[in-house]
Amino acid sequence: MSNTAQLSARDRITSLLDDNSFVEVGAHVTKRSTDFNLAQKEVPADGVITGYGVIDGNLVYVFSQDSDALGGSIGEMHAKKIAHIYDLALKVGAPVIGLIDSSGMRLQEAQDALNGFGEIYKKQTLASGVIPQITAIFGTCGGGLAVMASLSDFSFMEEKKARLFVNSPNTLLNNYKEKNDTAKAEFHASAGTVDYVGKDELEVLSKIRELVSILPSNNQDDASYDECTDDLNRVLPGFESEINDAKRAIISLSDNHYFFEIKTDYAKEMVIGFIRLNGMTVGAVANRTEILNNNGKVEEQFDGSLTSNGCYKAASFVNFCDAFEIPVLTLTNVCGYKSTMEEERLIADASAKLTYAFANATVPKVNVIVGKAYGSAYITMNSKHIGADMVFALPNSEIGMMDAELAAQIMYEGDTKAVIKEKAEEYAKLQSSALSAAKRGYIDNIIEPEEVRKHVIYAFEMLFTKTESRPDKKHGSI
């Protein structure tokens, strides 16, 4: 089949799952309503194909909306089929994958359709943090369906035909589709609403298969491992030159240079995604100060500060990792908080959420300080002060309240340049160096850049059986 051809609802399932593994559930279920001439309309499977199968041997449950059956609209029985799939998935502890292509709510069954949406939302909420939920959008995903997609852990969009919106572009004040198509994949990728955009349907389905293969099936599954064929002691000769483009650094230290990046086009100064270390799935979070192209030329630069979007991006990822017992690795290189009028509206709330996510997580947490680590922004980035289990630092890293020269200027205001220079050097040695932090126990070891991989792997191996008790509570409120 051509890569550009529109796949049917059943073709999408076939392409997603291992060969001949799909078992349909509820194939004969259809509408009950006869209002508004529905009795004369054929709606095969009530517009949604549901069932289960395997991906690389891993059990998954799937629903795929059929736009050829009354537009794939959601009515009473359509919703019940999806809810039933969730019930089965929760019983056995397997992911749910939703393939969205729907005109939305079925108007002929308005009240029952509203009830159906509510039933699905409730199932998704119950499943959150218990089983992974993945949504892929291939056609229209509007109104209440957009909420469904965002209740998932990961959402994917096909680049050309997929449309995601709560309100369509033409209904927005002073906007129209040709001016700013707020339903397009490109718009939502840059806004952080979706995690991955594929150039066609087959690429989206392939990436979902890849994601399922590296995730645990549920929050009590410890089988998200693969055989490691990489050298555990592999040195990283170019690691120090890759620190500024943290994506390159992450790829360099991962098994066989594997990296599944998430939200690539949103808050690019913060990099998140999954890597493998000694075959184990690990969540990676890193600050980035520049983006390099394939020729090593700088394409974009960032000032090394924490932004609101970057904090929100990382916080949700850390929360997911913690829910599914996925260890977290952080590469810290941050000089403070972004300082603009716009950022000031959100940065306190956003940084609080990221601080809470790291501090609240009980999974193994390892931090490598690869550059600057200044102020409370450094504390937020998985520091030992808020619960990191192991913290390493590179020899030239800087850890403290602020740049040493600026600190000297403040403390010795009015003194000569020579005095300020002397005091800046003294401050850097006593209050801003990796060695001074290590002497105080805030860093566990100072390591050479080329040895980062082996130290991180050994740290996670040591933390493999980690358990941590917390105060008894229903849940946090941040």
From TrEMBL:
- List, for all copies, the residue spans of the domain called CoA carboxyltransferase N-terminal: 1-227
> Which keywords does the record carry?
Transferase
Domain named CoA carboxyltransferase C-terminal: residues: 231-473
Name the Gene Ontology molecular function terms of this record: propionyl-CoA carboxylase activity; transferase activity
Q: Which InterPro entries match?
A: AccD/PCCB, AcCoA_carboxyl_beta, ClpP/crotonase-like_dom_sf, COA_CT_C, COA_CT_N
Gene3D superfamilies given in the database record: 2-enoyl-CoA Hydratase, Chain A, domain 1
Q: Which GO terms describe its cellular component?
A: acetyl-CoA carboxylase complex
Name of this chain's protein: Carboxyl transferase
| Organism lineage | Bacteria, Bacillati, Bacillota, Clostridia, Lachnospirales
